[in-house]
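[Help] Beginner question about ligand-bound structures

Sorry if this is basic. My supervisor gave me a protein sequence and a SMILES string for zinc ion and asked me to "get the holo structure". I don't really know what that means in practice or what format the answer should be in. Inputs are pasted below exactly as I got them.
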Amino acid sequence: MPARADLRREYDRKRRQSHPWRALYKTPEWQAIRAQVLAAEPLCRRCQAEGLITAATVVNHVERHHGDPVKFFAGPFEPLCKPCHDGEVQRQERAGAGNE
Ligand SMILES: [Zn+2]
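Answer (accepted):
No worries, everyone starts somewhere. Holo just means with the ligand present. The predicted complex, written as structure tokens, is below.
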């Protein structure tokens, strides 16, 4: 059995190959947008809706961008904590499997 970390690396590698637009997250433009969103709204929007105060660490695309750079950089965006973001991504992936 391969170690769990190896499986994770392999998964990440495959995911990068099938979604080359993930490189958009590495651009200075995205880094600036991300910093701006988190500075303007430092708390997780979903947790806040539940009455919880949680620091946001992830900037989520409210609408799926499907790798379209215009949509990717135009937003709209929402600040989320990691658990909310991961839950959201999983929900979207279940809803639109293979639709990315
Ligand atoms: Zn949250």
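A couple of things worth pointing out: Residues 4-95 form one domain. The radius of gyration is 15 Å. Feel free to follow up in the thread.
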